[in-house]
């Protein structure tokens, strides 16, 4: 029964005014574009009835007399699958979701609360950018949001979900967060739009070509995940959250599922081709090692020569980094190095142990790679592994050559346990390249160079590149049966459960950017 005493009458009137904003036209405007409204997005993401809105009745700067509430953004807190989170959702139906002073203050408020209370924050982005009519004040609002992004980095998970345009200054907050989701056909990110590109550079382009989800998921790497519609995008966010701790002092959530996978799997021994130059899909290897159906790949469509993702091993969350032999033979290039380095640093920030599956013939050669600073970008991955203090285990599946061997969490880079399959080849370079340098004169003067080449390659594999040489010198802890990989890794991570390692005291390192 409604209490009609004067104080409560006003309370009910205000609530009714707020609800009346979301009429049929409000929903139709978004639905006609193939998009959900800000409120529908929140309702879909959050557990039923758990969302509590904050600052619902604030009004835009200079428009205190109008009857429109909220200033184009809905902010608050609730739960996702029982986990406490903060959320903000920009409302494109009000001034194109543009960011003004009050709009920014609302976002900053929940950012500060999330950081103080140690809960993840999720931003549902649908904005045309800074509110032009508020001038520099709107730019100052963005600066406040960016500052909070940086303060929260490595302390709480920050997730950006692009569900419409993110233009101009609006793109930099997502860029500062840990993960970015996009939706095909309806979400875009760009610093300057097609009209500006045409005006300044006289280049014709479309929203999709310039900054669509497909572009950012495949070419730029800005988008970690893309989905076909908003519902699946938000379901992806829910799944990602299930792997993450709430903050940097907690550990990832542990499941209690029995029969997660067989301890021993003979299929692992059969996955690698007899010919070491033939490709295979490393995802098949990952899936046979981790718990059944637990591998959640990240940035699947970008830099496909390296695979990254979250998984569970005996119900414990781990991060996986694996070279992908079926793409560019698994070579490390600029994009792969950046992709893996950022993921390693994320896992280290949030207490997620790392499993590295190595099959890498080296860094990608070429003028383009060198001129675009493969040296600096490759060093990012090196830096990330060396800096990480979480448990780190490497399994060399096949090739581990040269600088790429070092970078992929080698023993002397700080790998806690380094294992190898009998198929592993550990050396400065591959057999063919090595004998061309080491035995150049013999090959030039040989009566039968091809026969000599075969013998030299066999000798090199036997005495230099096989895993037993590295094992005997202590660079590998153990050569293991592939079928026992899961058991070995589970035991090794259990031993590392109480690992304590501290980097030297400093303000921060200077990662090679």
Automatic annotation (TrEMBL):
MF terms in GO: acetyl-CoA carboxylase activity; propionyl-CoA carboxylase activity
Gene3D superfamilies (alphabetical): 2-enoyl-CoA Hydratase, Chain A, domain 1 (3.90.226.10)
Domain of life: Bacteria
Pfam family, one: Carboxyl_trans
Biological processes, Gene Ontology terms: fatty acid biosynthetic process
GO cellular-component term (any): acetyl-CoA carboxylase complex
Protein name: Acyl-CoA carboxylase subunit beta
UniProt domain CoA carboxyltransferase C-terminal: residue ranges: 262-506
Cross-referenced InterPro entries: AccD/PCCB, AcCoA_carboxyl_beta, Acetyl_CoA_COase_Trfase_b_su, ClpP/crotonase-like_dom_sf, COA_CT_C, COA_CT_N
Organism: Plebeiibacterium marinum
């Amino acid at each position: 029964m409604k209490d009609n005493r004067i104080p409560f009458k006003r309370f009910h009137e205000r609530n009714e005014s707020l609800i009346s904003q979301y009429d049929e036209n409000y929903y139709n405007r978004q639905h006609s574009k193939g998009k959900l409204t800000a409120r529908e997005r929140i309702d879909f993401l959050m557990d039923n009835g758990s969302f509590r809105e904050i600052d619902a009745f604030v009004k835009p700067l200079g428009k205190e007399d109008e009857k429109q509430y909220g200033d184009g953004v809905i902010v608050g807190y609730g739960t996702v699958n029982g986990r406490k989170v903060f959320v903000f959702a920009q409302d494109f139906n009000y001034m194109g979701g543009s960011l003004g002073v009050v709009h920014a203050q609302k976002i900053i408020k929940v950012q500060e609360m999330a950081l103080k209370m140690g809960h993840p924050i999720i931003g549902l982005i649908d904005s045309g950018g800074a509110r032009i009519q508020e001038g520099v004040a709107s730019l100052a609002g963005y600066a406040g949001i960016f500052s909070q992004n940086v303060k929260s980095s490595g302390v709480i998970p920050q997730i950006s979900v692009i569900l419409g345009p993110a233009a101009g200054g609006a793109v930099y907050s997502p860029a500062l967060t840990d993960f970015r989701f996009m939706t095909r056909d309806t979400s875009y990110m760009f610093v300057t739009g097609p009209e500006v590109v045409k005006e300044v550079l006289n280049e014709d382009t479309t929203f999709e070509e310039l900054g669509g989800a497909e572009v950012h998921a495949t070419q730029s790497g800005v988008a970690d995940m893309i989905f076909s519609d908003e519902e699946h995008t938000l379901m992806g966010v829910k799944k990602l959250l299930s792997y993450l701790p709430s903050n940097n002092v907690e550990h990832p959530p542990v499941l209690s599922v029995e029969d997660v996978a067989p301890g021993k799997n003979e299929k692992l021994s059969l996955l690698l081709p007899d010919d070491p130059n033939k490709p295979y899909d490393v995802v098949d290897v990952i899936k046979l090692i981790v718990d059944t159906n637990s591998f959640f790949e990240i940035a699947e469509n970008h830099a496909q020569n390296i695979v990254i993702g979250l998984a569970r091993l005996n119900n414990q969350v781990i991060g996986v980094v694996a070279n992908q032999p079926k793409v560019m033979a698994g070579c490390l290039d600029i994009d792969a190095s950046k992709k893996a380095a950022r993921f390693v640093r994320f896992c280290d920030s949030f207490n997620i142990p790392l499993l590295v599956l190595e099959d890498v013939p080296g860094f990608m050669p070429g003028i383009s790679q060198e001129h675009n600073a493969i040296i600096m970008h490759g060093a990012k991955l090196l830096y990330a592994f060396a800096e990480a203090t979480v448990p780190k285990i490497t399994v060399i599946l096949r090739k581990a050559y040269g600088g790429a061997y070092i970078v992929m969490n080698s023993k002397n880079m700080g790998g806690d346990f380094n294992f190898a399959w009998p198929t592993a080849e550990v050396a400065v370079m591959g057999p063919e390249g090595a004998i061309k340098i080491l035995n150049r004169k013999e090959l030039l003067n040989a009566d039968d160079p091809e026969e000599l080449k075969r013998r030299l390659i066999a000798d090199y594999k036997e005495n230099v590149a096989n895993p037993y040489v590295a094992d005997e010198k202590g660079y590998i802890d153990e050569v293991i049966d592939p079928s026992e990989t899961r058991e070995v890794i589970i035991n090794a991570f259990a031993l590392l459960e109480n690992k304590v390692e501290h980097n030297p005291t400093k303000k921060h390192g200077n990662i090679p950017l």
